[in-house]
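For reproducibility, we list the full input for the zinc ion complex.
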Amino acid sequence: MTTPNPIVSGLSARCPRCGQGALFKNGLTVRERCGNCGLSYGFADSGDGPAVFVIMILGALTLGGALFLEFRYEPPVWVHVVVWGVFIPIVAFALLRLLKGVLINLQYAHKAEEGRLETKKSDGQK
Ligand SMILES: [Zn+2]
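The corresponding predicted structure, in tokenized form, follows.
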């Protein structure tokens, strides 16, 4: 079994080992294990990583879009409320899913995990 490209399997929210099984249930919740190859997703901890990227990307898109909309069309305020009130949650969800999938797949591909103190075996070797 060849390991899939972590970017491709991450963007498609698939298992980092087999590239087939689903990574999420109910949108953004990581499943317990892969339904295809049985890989436990216990290692998966993307933390705040995806949120940081989403904040940066979505903030730039929203600010740029709001400025463009305002200065190009000068709409009433309620148009901004409706447009950005719909745009922001949808794009935030989509970006979070994509980036969380990619970061978990990259975490698996690079074997990234928390640092641990090495426990020395007491077998007399130095
Ligand atoms: Zn799998």
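The two ends are 38 Å apart (CA to CA). Residues 3 and 22 are 15 Å apart (CA to CA). Both points were considered when choosing residues for closer inspection.
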